Amino acid sequence: MGDVFKALADPTRRTILDELAERDGQTLFEIRARLTTRHGLGSSRQAISQHLDVLEAAGLVETRRDGKYKFHYLNTAPLQQITTRWLTDRRESR
């Protein structure tokens, strides 16, 4: 669970997750283009790739290869685990 919090601590990674929530199944090139045009983030391809690696290691992003393309998908399961752990228990005990 610590990896999830580490991944969410960075504003660029949160923006990447926002973009995947809006339009799932994007390539690195598409994500970088959207970050540049919609958010004014001028990060390099390598920097975005590293952010995606952190998100993937935390389980927040899953990938699928199709030929030479790698598509990135949002996985909300780790966030649901956090919600279940702290929020569900509190609501039930009231």
UniProtKB/TrEMBL annotation:
The keyword Transmembrane helix does not apply. Gene3D superfamilies: Winged helix-like DNA-binding domain superfamily/Winged helix DNA-binding domain (1.10.10.10). GO terms for molecular function: DNA binding; DNA-binding transcription factor activity. Keywords: DNA-binding, Transcription, Transcription regulation. Residues 1-94 form the HTH arsR-type domain. The keyword DNA-binding applies. It holds the Pfam family HTH_20. SMART domains: HTH_ARSR. This is Transcriptional repressor SdpR. It comes from Mycolicibacterium chubuense. The gene is sdpR_2.
